[in-house]
């Protein structure tokens, strides 16, 4: 779990540094015309730019997520899928929190122009994929427990 978090955090911070170094805020580069752009923005809000300039609220939320991930990882015997999900969540939360603390905004840069999806970054994607993996594992566990309970009911 921690290895996944470290890799995500390092890649996230490297990519954000490169974006800030190479592109001015508001500047973009087309990667695949009509589909994908690298477009530098500094987001002072949360997902989809909600609650702009509430930096410390989002730092607090990130701290709660970080503590929750660490506590959960210590209390449960996690399988590989759960460990990867928790690692993605942890790395992404720390990555965006670092931006908020150091530069008071989050560097976003991936823009899928084909669907006009809001601009995001690796930390955002890691958080989303991490939560998705945890949900999948939760449903898989519930399904197994349900099957075991139904077998016990039949006995």
UniProtKB/TrEMBL annotation:
Root EC class: hydrolase
Membrane-crossing ranges are: 55-72, 84-103, 109-136
Indicate where this protein resides in the cell. Cell membrane
Please report the organism this UniProt entry assigns to the protein.
Answer: Alicyclobacillus fodiniaquatilis
State the similarity comment: Belongs to the peptidase A8 family.
The reaction(s) this protein catalyses:
Release of signal peptides from bacterial membrane prolipoproteins. Hydrolyzes -Xaa-Yaa-Zaa-|-(S,diacylglyceryl)Cys-, in which Xaa is hydrophobic (preferably Leu), and Yaa (Ala or Ser) and Zaa (Gly or Ala) have small, neutral side chains
> Which InterPro entries would you find in this protein's record?
Peptidase_A8
Q: Which PROSITE patterns match?
A: SPASE_II
What are the catalytic residues? 108, 124
The alphabetical list of record keywords is: Aspartyl protease, Cell membrane, Hydrolase, Membrane, Protease, Transmembrane, Transmembrane helix
Name of the molecule in the record: Lipoprotein signal peptidase
Q: Which gene encodes it?
A: lspA
HAMAP family, sorted? LspA
Pfam family for this entry, one:
Peptidase_A8
The record gives the membrane topology as: Multi-pass membrane protein
Q: What does this protein do?
A: This protein specifically catalyzes the removal of signal peptides from prolipoproteins.
EC number of the protein: 3.4.23.36
Q: Which GO terms describe its molecular function?
A: aspartic-type endopeptidase activity
Lineage of origin: Bacteria, Bacillati, Bacillota, Bacilli, Bacillales
Pathway per the UniProt entry: Protein modification; lipoprotein biosynthesis (signal peptide cleavage)
First-listed, main subcellular location of the protein, grouped into a coarse class = membrane
